[in-house]
Amino acid sequence: MHFALESKLQGGLHAFEQRLARRTLPVPVSSQTDRDNLVDFTTNDYLSLTRLPALRNKFLQKLTDAPNILGSGGSRLLVNGEAHAALEKRLAKFFNSPIALIFNSGYHANVGFFSCVPQPGDVIVYDEYVHASVHDGMKASRVEKARRIAFKTNSVDDLRRVLLGVRKMLKEKSAGMGGDTSSVFVSVEALYSMDGTIAPLTEICDTLEELFPAGNAYLIVDEAHSAGIYGPQGRGRVAQLALEHRVLVRLVTFGKALGATGAVLLTNELIRDYLIHHARSFIFTTSLSYSNIIAADASFDLLMDGTGERQSARLQENCVYLVTTMQKRLSTLGVAPKLLSIPPELCIERPGSNPPSPILPLLTSQARALSDYLRSLGIIALHVTWPAVPMGEDRVRVSLQAGHTREDIDRLVKGAVGWALQVAEKESKDSGASRSAGQRYEVAYASKL
């Protein structure tokens, strides 16, 4: 490699090192002994379906019965596999959608939609925390940068402010031109993957319909982290709130709660056909293999037979237990927020206002150190830094699963709070304390278990 290129690449990595944000791939769990001794709070296998013998057995039986299992033959425009078409038909019916179109991943689906469906002169309004795939799709679109506008996450008031400005802009642009032909696309996630917060979807729909009664404002909901967890048979938040006919597009991914690979866009026939003609992330890629499709189909069997709802109930019990336990420990032991805190909007003070979230960010100025400490205790919970989260908002992201036990959760809480108190003790100048913060923690924690 030429020294000039090597120097530039090393310089780019050095900038991450200076911010303590240099990324590395996680150490593989290499043996069954390691897997048995580690508690994993990292994966998005929320329903723990991948651990269920029932899913493995269904998958293997479907593989045995399937006429094709290897490869897919190429792009869907070249080879439209029978299994792919059958799964799309099944998903359209399951999610109460006019039609469904499978993509290789949620990233491919978001990039495909936002890069081609919004037209020149249209406006895209998006929650400031939407996934990077939406941003990449917008950048590749024909919508000019000035017409791609963010609003504060989950704030209906700020969304209204932005939309009023958009409405005024479109009205001024269309004056004397025989009426406005622009569309407004609003992009949100049902459950935000780094903050664990839940979007107020009903209020967003109400706002769109109020401010754009002509029907030219459309909601696109990313259900990547909410499908399988919420709604009847795991159909997601849109279905839970009965908003199917008020949302233009839903994205459901198979790789998280469903334990498979791939994604599907749920929409109408016109948009499906337009995507087939223009979405480069759909056209110019080999489609998912037959075995991937079979695996996803097996996962939906478990949603339909009630297994998913039972797993979801266990998961949501775990969510409530973790938040209430962590909140209680932090409040009674007085850990400094800069060392360890959880977002106040996730604290369970008004049960019933929002369903529990399986994602809990442990906010800390020393996220890498906390993650390393937890790993030393046999707990995997990885730190997250920029650009996955805004600069200065580092955290250890905890991903709960139905298969976690109360003992697993207690171990996590004890480890995280114990670490924070050890750090606080080291930083403290009060050498005359009769009992160290760490000792106080051990006594206080033991008395509450």
From TrEMBL:
Protein family: Belongs to the class-II pyridoxal-phosphate-dependent aminotransferase family. BioF subfamily.
InterPro entries reported for this sequence: Aminotransferase_I/II_large, AON_synthase_class-II, PyrdxlP-dep_Trfase, PyrdxlP-dep_Trfase_major, PyrdxlP-dep_Trfase_small
Tree of life domain: Eukaryota
Co-factor(s): pyridoxal 5'-phosphate
Annotated region described as Disordered, given as residue ranges: 427-449
Residue ranges of domain Aminotransferase class I/classII large in the record: 37-414
Signal sequence coordinates: none
Keyword Transferase: yes
Any one Gene Ontology BP term: biotin biosynthetic process
One annotated GO molecular function: pyridoxal phosphate binding
Keyword Kinase: no
Protein source organism: Coprinopsis marcescibilis (Agaric fungus)
Sequence intervals crossing the membrane: none
UniProtKB keywords: Pyridoxal phosphate, Transferase
Protein name: PLP-dependent transferase
